[in-house]
Design brief:
The complex is a heterodimer.
Chain A lengths: L1 E4 L3 E4 L4 E5 L12 H9 L7 E7 L7 E7 L5 E6 H8 L1
Antiparallel strand pairs in A: 1-2, 3-4, 4-5, 5-6
Chain B lengths: L15 E3 L2 E5 L5 E6 L4 H12 L9 E4 L2 E7 L2 E5 L11 E5 L4 E7 L3 H6 L16 E6 L2 E9 L2 E7 L3 H17 L2
Antiparallel strand pairs in B: 1-2, 2-8, 3-6, 3-7, 4-5, 5-6, 8-11, 9-10, 10-11
């Protein structure tokens, strides 16, 4: 599997570390309530299809990226800097 | 009193010569990481150019030459290798001394590319990775910075604690490449 780092270009998967579903870019407000926080901390979807996830380019430039990957085929549709995703949703 | 002796990270490990390839210590001088503050990149580029005569390298690029280089070193990070940084740079960037933190070696020889091909998950052949190109990647399992500094010369940098591992992995690859003639 290869991941197209927005900074470094196309790189082997071994340079990246998987950091879970891309929920960390949508952290609830501190007073959002127990339900929102329970969802944020504990509940994850397990789709047989497209999934937004966070990867860390730890052996490369160090960027955190949001990868849209198909969990059944490993096809990657989109890679963006987590910072850009966060700014776009702000 | 304890006497403290300055010792290079690759002291006693290099030089090595296996086949036509050589591994030597890269004596870069002071290493300084420069991380531009938000919005201060243009100012840093200008200050670096004025003070040290080098352009601020973009991602995957290095500028300068032997004795004074600026090497892209990660997201928003450049390492200045050689000159002592002028004070002006601190106005635009976080300036941090890294001199003793890195083990720096130079791999040279007509088959240096073949040696690295055994260890690095990147195409480092000259058609793709020219002089002045650099990459943050891995050498075997060690996070590293790889820079082409000549037709058959590469500058390799890893964390100081990984010096012996780096030399071990490189010497094995050099031996195998040499054995193939």
């Amino acid at each position: 599997m290869r991941i197209e780092c927005p900074i470094c270009g196309s790189r082997d998967r071994r340079e990246f570390y998987y950091q879970g579903a891309a929920v960390a870019v949508a952290r609830p407000a501190p007073d959002a309530g127990a339900e929102a926080w329970d969802d944020y901390v504990h509940l994850r979807d397990n789709p047989a299809g497209w999934h937004d996830e966070l990867w860390h380019h730890e052996a490369g430039c160090g960027a955190w990226v949001v990868v849209t990957r198909n969990l059944t085929t490993h096809e990657i549709r989109d890679v963006q800097l987590a910072q850009s995703v966060k700014e776009a949703s702000a | 009193m304890v006497e403290i002796v300055a010792k290079s990270a690759v002291d006693g490990l290099v030089p090595l010569e296996i086949g036509a390839q050589k591994l030597t210590e890269a004596k870069l001088g002071p290493l300084t990481s420069l991380m531009a503050y938000n919005g201060a990149e243009a100012g840093l580029a200008k200050a670096l150019e004025t003070a040290h005569g080098m352009a601020l390298p973009g991602p995957n690029r290095a500028t300068g030459k032997d004795g004074a280089r600026a090497i892209w070193f990660g997201r928003g990070q450049v390492v200045l290798a050689g000159p002592e940084p002028v004070a002006d740079l601190a106005e635009y960037a976080a300036v941090v001394d890294q001199s003793d933190a890195w083990a720096c070696v130079e791999l040279s020889g007509p088959k240096a590319e073949a040696v690295l091909a055994r260890l690095v998950p990147l195409d480092l052949r000259a058609a793709h990775f020219k002089r002045g190109h650099t990459a943050r990647t891995q050498i075997q399992h060690v996070n590293a910075s790889v820079t082409r500094i000549g037709a058959d010369r590469f500058l390799l940098m890893v964390f100081r604690s990984m010096a012996a591992t780096l030399v071990h992995d490189l010497s094995q690859a050099m031996t195998t490449v040499a054995a193939r003639g």
